[in-house]
Structures are given as C-alpha cells and as structure tokens.
Predict the structure.
Amino acid sequence: MDAIIVSFERKKTRKFFFKFIFLIPFFSDAISLNFDGNSYIKMNLDIRPISSSFDDVFRFRFRTNEAFGNILYGTGIQGDLMALQLAKNKLLLTLDLGENIVDTISAGSLLDDNLWHDVFISRQGRELTFSVDRVVVKYRLKTDFNRLDLNNDLYIGGLPGYLTGFINTRKNFTGCIENLSFNTTNIAHEIQDDYNNKNFVYKIFGNIHYTCQFQPVIPITFNTRESHINVLGNMNNVLNASLDFRTFNDYGLLIYHQFSIKGFFAVFLKNGKLMLKIQGVDPTTGDETPQVPLEPFDRKLNDGSWHNVQIALQRNRIILTLDGIPSTTIRTFQMQTGQKYTIGGGIPSYRGFIGCMRWIYIENRFINPEMIGSENIHKVQESDITIKSCQMIDRCHPNPCEHGGTCKQNHLGFACDCGDSGYLGAVCHVPRHPFSCTAFMNDNPNTKREDIKIDVDGSGPLEPFWVTCLQTAENTIETVIHHQNEAPQKVQGFLQPGSYIQDIKYDAPLEQIVHLVNRSDNCRQKLKYECRNARLLNSPSKSIYYC
C-alpha cells in the first residue's frame, strides 16, 4: 500500500502575526530605554496590535554589564511563545508556534561587556535567521506550523513574578535598549508618546529613563602572559582586595603581594579553579609559616563569564569569596602588607593571566586602569595590554565541533573533544564507524557475524546506530536492526479485536532506517506468533481457527 500523506493547516483566530525579515527602518533620533533591573514595560496587544505584512522587522541594539536578563517575552492564547533572554552572556531566542514544540536558538557571546550589540531576527515560516553583531545563525524550526500569534501582553525589559512560561532566568534586564522596532514601529517612540498622550497602550513598572545613563566600566585586557600592572599599597595589618575577571585559560595569576615583613599571598587559577597560596609569620617564633595552598571552590572558572573574587586577610583569618560565596579559613599567622601588588603576571613562579579584568579594588581603593602611570604598566609592545576594552574572542560560539563535540579554547585557539560521538578529526567530522555492513565485511572478510555501529550518511547529520552484520550461506550481506521486543512476550486477557497493541521501538531512529532501506536491495520484517489454545482469527465463516 502506498503511503498516505496528509497535510494540516492550522487555522487560528488571530489579531496579528509576526514573520521577521531584514527590513531596517531609519529613525533620525534614536531613543534609548534604560532599565535598572527592577523595571519593565507591558505592552497591551489588544489596544495596539503590531501591524503585520508578509515582510516584517524585528530589530534592536543593547548594552549591559550583566550576564542575565529578560529582554522580550510574549505569548498567545493558543500556546504561541516568543522569549528573548540574556543567559550566561549569550542571547537565547525561544519560539513555540503553538504546537507545543519549543525551539531555543543561541547567538552571540561575551555580550555583558558594556558595548553596544546589534540584534536582527528574521523568520519566514520555519526558516529562522538570528544575527548578533553580523554573526549569523540559521535555523529551521522543528514545528509544522508557520505563524507566530502573540495576542497576549508583550513584556519588554523584564517580567512580573507570576509568569511561569519557558524562562531561563528570573532576572530583569539591566542596561540600555535602543531602536527597538517591529516593522516600521519604533517602540521607544511609542512608549514616550503614550506616556505624554495617555493612550494606555504601554504600562511602565519601575523607573525607565530615555537616555542611556550607564555606569562607566573601564576593563583592562592582558593579552600576553608577561603583561601585568603594579598597584601601590600601604603598610597595614589587614588586607582587602577584589576584582572581576573573565578568561578561557586554565592557568593565570590574578593577584600577587609580597608582605613588608616575611611571607606573601597569591590568588591564581590552576586547572580552571581558584587557588590561594599564603605564607605569613608565626606570631610566637617570628619565623615564616609553611606555605598553605587553599582550593575551597570546586568550580571551573575559565568559561568566559565574569567572576568576582575577593580576599580579606587579618590575623589568623583568611576569607576568600567567589561570586558572593565566602570561604573562611582559620590559620595561625600574622602579616603586614607591603608597598606593591602585582596583577596579571610578572611573577616567574606563576603563569601570567590572559583575559579581562574590571572593578579592581586594592585596600578598598578603586583602581582606574586609565590612571595607572606608565611606569606601573609592564608590556613588551602596545598590543600586550588593552585598556577600556575587553578584547576576547569566543572561538567556541557558535560551536565549530560537529556532531555534538565539546569545544575547549584558550588564547591560542580551540580544540574539539569528540568523546563517544562516533566521529574523529579536528572538528569531529570524520566518521569513526563504517558506512554499511558491506563496507565492514569488505574490510573484515573472515567475519560471519558482528554487532557494530554503522553511519549511513558518513559525515552527515544522522547519528550512528547499532546493527548486526550477517554474511549468509549465499554470500549475501544482511543488516539486522534489532528492537526491544525480540524476546517472547506473554499476552493474555485480550479478547476483543484491537484490544492488544504492541509498539515496536527499533534501535535506530526512523530517519536512519529510511536512509538504510533506500540504499538496500530489499527489506523485510518478520513477525512470529506462538500460541496455545488461543483464537488467532475470528472469521465471519463458521470455521474457527485455533493454533
């Protein structure tokens, strides 16, 4: 019997719909929306539906210092969903066209750097183009529907606490959004006009400013292991220091300080984890105490995200804080701070730090990288240190490793860990498994039977799967795909026709099976039925069949 192909078209009562493409309207005077992390805007789509045509626009630019925040969130009465969120310094676009099939697409990286980033989204049916700073990600939605119907409220910059939809973060956005537009509608202009004319389309929660009032951040980038800065200190019997850092490297010195009397402390990364090494003075003998290495946090920090580290030293007490989580150690020692703190490198026994730092505080003093004298900036050439910019490249986003390979990077490049993906090579492109049982048998002519994985499309997107390869007496090669119900299944108590149903789940996805069948000379399935005193057929004739 030929296959019957049925197509369904979803007919919905809709007030508007979105199909996003690249039509960029020009606005002579851009208006920024400044969110403080406690504010958001609710747009009433019943009063003000966004005009729509076949070609529509979704566009904005933003800047922030935060790695998390809700930017846009809208739903429809028939289950449609659109959410745009900043999560782990990447943008996540989540779409559901009403079929309860959720697609999440990631674009951009290192976006919490206080710089402006341009965002464009184009959706034509199921074809999606997601662009951040002209780096384009193309994606085909898994749904069979083609229209996005958002006819509930649209939230901008944050969410009320009672919403429970597909949300990666509960944090509201902190930063500036500029030129937010749908089609030819400039949302920022409309919000301002709505406030002045009392149209009640937009409701503002919290404080929204129409200029980008942004706290200045002055990062410093160490591009080589030898580059570092020195910060002057005072002689005290207590010490406080803190900084933010981000890096992709496993090793790197963050802070080193030689005490004015005996001893030192060093905060550094080792195998991606935060380490502290300290040596003080025994208050009883006056001798140096043994060097104490501390590793209180079992976390990898070389993930490109911002992390905050604080160290506080006082007599017999060490407090090391990572991302707001403190760890206190009691040791018998005393110390007195010296006149120089070294940040980033320059200590032969430690590998230098490569990455970015910001919000550096030494002895409760903010260290502005622009105000550091040239005598305290150590570099071989100008490019070794960059001030006012975080010049880092995320080589693993988008992931260059194919077939689910894991990407790991440092300042030199990236490497792919293919693991058990079934693929080899620099980017996990070369198939590890044979193309077919025939190819396997040709390479192993003395083998009559073998359980192996085959990869029916080579380096293509289909995953390898388990089969049994058989060489028959007629010298033909058979490929057997197994399933979980091959052992005898006891069936009893089912009398009516159709009362017993058994789902057969093969050890291969349907797409792989279809690919294999299309390349085979023939295909067959076998069903074995064993019974005792059971009625097999219920014929309308007087004859009754038993087995």
Observations:
- The two ends are 29 Å apart (CA to CA).
- Residues 1-28, 542-547 have pLDDT under 50 and may be disordered.
- The chain has three domains: 20-209, 220-387, 433-547.
